[in-house]
Amino acid sequence: MGQSSEDHHRWFRSHLKDDLLPRWLRAVDAPSGLFMPQLDRAWLPKPRRHATLVSQARLIYNFAVGFRLTGNERYRDAARRGADALLQTFGGNEPGLWAWSAAEDGRILDHHRSAYGHAFVAFGLAHAFAITQDGRFLEAALATVGALKTRFRDRHGPFVPALTPEGVDTGATRTQNPVMHLFEALLALGHEAGVAEAFADAQDIARWAMATMMRENGILPEFYSHDWQPLSEAEGGRIDIGHQFEWAYLLSRAIEVGALP
Fold this sequence. Notes:
The protein is 54% helix and 8% strand. The protein is mainly alpha-helical. α1 (5-28) packs across α2.
């Protein structure tokens, strides 16, 4: 007989708890809190390494999940160190704006502002706050959402994908990816961190995405012109199957946690 959904759920939790998360903890946790994710097939560090907003925030989230799943304080300590390092290393003079990447010694390697990276900062810090109740993490997460809504504002859509360190639109092709991950971050702020007003922002993004980005057949194209018209294949447009499933999951999750009616 085939395995039940309960069997699959049990296997997945065991795989996370006993295999994946302990490997990440051993491989990247460091006293500095900067997580270097460049590893070889044996989970050993590669010679040249760096951290980005996305790798730092995703691993903060991983360790928050590890703490919730196991109650092991090592995961909470790692998440706290990672969130502290994010604030201390990637932040600048303006709250809510972050440089893209840093070296192991904390030197900033790339100062440009990525909407995709900022969405992950809000996501990771929401989960860090949820397991530590450290108000600094929540304050920084909310400042990041505020920066996305103001400094990254695009007159045709939610926000531009990237800014120069001086805050100028780089002219990058518009993409649905940071829109999706900000939606994910707002769900985390609302459900995990208890910020009720985050759900209102999530509803606004969902309405805009369904009205503007989604095609009549349910497809969400990946890339758009500066006025948010889908690019043709000849222009570099495409469909990302993984992101189709990710949107489906996040929209379902939004209904589950009460962010969408």
